Amino acid sequence: MSLSLFNLAGRRALITGGTQGIGAALARGLGLAGASLVINARNQDKLDGFVDELKQEGLNATGALFDITDPEAVQQAVEEIEETGGPIDILVNNAGVIRRAPAEDLTEADWHTVIHTNLSAPFVVSKYVGRRMIARQRGKIINICSLMSELGRDSVSAYAAAKGGLKMLTRSLATEWAIHNIQVNGIGPGYIATPINTAYREPGNPLNDYILSRTPAGRWGTPEDLVGAAVFLASSASDFVNGQILYVDGGLLSTFGKPHS
Ligand code: GCO
């Protein structure tokens, strides 16, 4: 057994929504494991800034500006990415949004935005990248799911529905494409300190206290806590792993919870 199992040298990874938070950490981690990186974003300045940062760190990175919610743009972008730089070996469907409101008040527009971005877009990106992985008979797809793939919580009905759907899309694509040597899996982050959760982490916020009491590790995760799972699922070490959601949650899903003494 050699550690080359986890070596991503010679492989190319496309990360959607890869300029901040979890996406940025996963991009950096996959790059440090040897992958060349294609970073997707919708904002040119953010994209250029992050790609430059990665290059200054000695990583092989390029940017791909396209809107994952626009199927035509996705198809064209995948074609261009592969024609200009070679095959996409690893796809990380990371980009996502959240809209929090009581279900009875959630607008249909916000519902559609969340479902479209967090579920429909990963399907479309996977479809166009997957077609090419099938032709090559190899590939890795990693969908960034959530605790909300398993649990509901008040005010995040659309997000939970989307992330629950993303779990089942992961299993369905795994079922169809495993025969093509394409491993489709997911990562389910616990409560991770990222911009979408900033409000929760203020001291004294009751949700912060509850999250810590429900998390056996007793802390918020960091985006870097997710890198090991991503490298594993992107590497040869996971060639017989299909349709799994690897929860990186400090134990939250494994416990009824206990008050921290
Ligand atoms: C929320 C949070 C969660 C986390 C994460 C958990 O409002 O409860 O935003 O959804 O962000 O998705 O895995």
- Give the strand content: 5-15%
Order of helices and strands: EHEHEHEHEHEHHE
According to CATH, the homologous superfamily is NAD(P)-binding Rossmann-like Domain
Structural class by sheet pairing and helices = alpha/beta
Number of domains: 1
Quote the average pLDDT: 96
Strand order of the largest sheet: 3-2-1-4-5-6-7
Cofactors and ligands: D-gluconic acid
Number of strands: 7
- Taking pLDDT < 50 over at least 5 consecutive residues as the criterion, the unreliable ranges are none
Written overview of the protein:
- There is one protein chain.
- The chain has 261 residues and is α/β, with parallel strands linked by helices.
- It has one domain: 3-Layer(aba) Sandwich (Rossmann fold), CATH 3.40.50.720.
- It contains seven helices and seven strands.
- Strands 3-2-1-4-5-6-7 form a seven-stranded parallel β-sheet, with helices on both faces.
- Helix 4 links the parallel strand 4 (90-93) and strand 5.
- Helix 3 packs parallel to helix 4 and helix 4 (108-136) packs parallel to helix 5 (157-177).
- The termini are far apart.
- The relative contact order is 0.14.
- The mean pLDDT is 96.
- The structure holds D-gluconic acid (GCO).
- D-gluconic acid binds next to loops.
